[in-house]
Amino acid sequence: MAILSTLRMLTFGTSLVFSLIVLGLCANILSISGPLLVSPQLGLAVSILTLLTLVPMLVIDMTRKGLLTSWVIVELPALSILWVLWLSVGAETDAEDAVVSAFTDGSCDFFGDAQFTTVCNSYKALEAFGFLTWLILLAYTIVLLVFACIAQSRGNRAVWTSAVRDTDFFTKTAGNGEPSVNQYPGVQTPHENAYPPAGQQMYQNAPNPAQAMPQSGRVAYPQA
Fold first, then answer.
1. Is residue 21 domain-resident?
2. Residue 116: pLDDT above 70?
3. Alpha carbon separation from 159 to 9, 70, 74, 75 (Å, rounded)
4. Is residue 80 domain-resident?
5. Radius of gyration (Cα) for the chain, nearest Å?
6. Which residue range(s) make up the domain with 20?
7. Number of domains the chain contains
8. Is the residue at 217 inside a domain?
9. 185 inside domain
């Protein structure tokens, strides 16, 4: 389906861009503060995991058809795990930022130190991108699940083992992924009405009594 396939590309592309941004932010924070803070380490791990998950799914889906990584039943749990992790990144960053803000009155320039200001601003950006990526992945996961359930209700049992770009989620099917015959009322199946009923064929082949009788009522005898 073109709309959902486009939405999928936008979701994956935006998530990958945000993951790269978070990767840079976390690397910058850890280079200044060291391995003392939890949220930068979590954000670094989740961003790398997102890159390792979404990039192969996109590349394989564009180069090969029908592989396991493109199935809806595989994509749904994979994206669900990712949005849960991104929610954890946003929540953990918000919790740590709240502790720091309690001592600095919410100002990153409270101590007048350049490194502290950099870490503080990076924390706020990390929190924002964590929640944004969570919302994007969550929204697409819900939409994909709803579309898959609609296709299942319309008889498309193969929707769970199909790729998003190869599936028409709103087409009523016969149960195996093929379009239903009843969907096209003007089209008849092959060999339909190819032969008339047996009784009709018998009466059509029977001779007409009026044609079998002589027209003049006389019987012709052969001459010697």
1. yes
2. yes
3. 19, 11, 12, 12
4. yes
5. 35
6. 2-138
7. 1
8. no
9. no
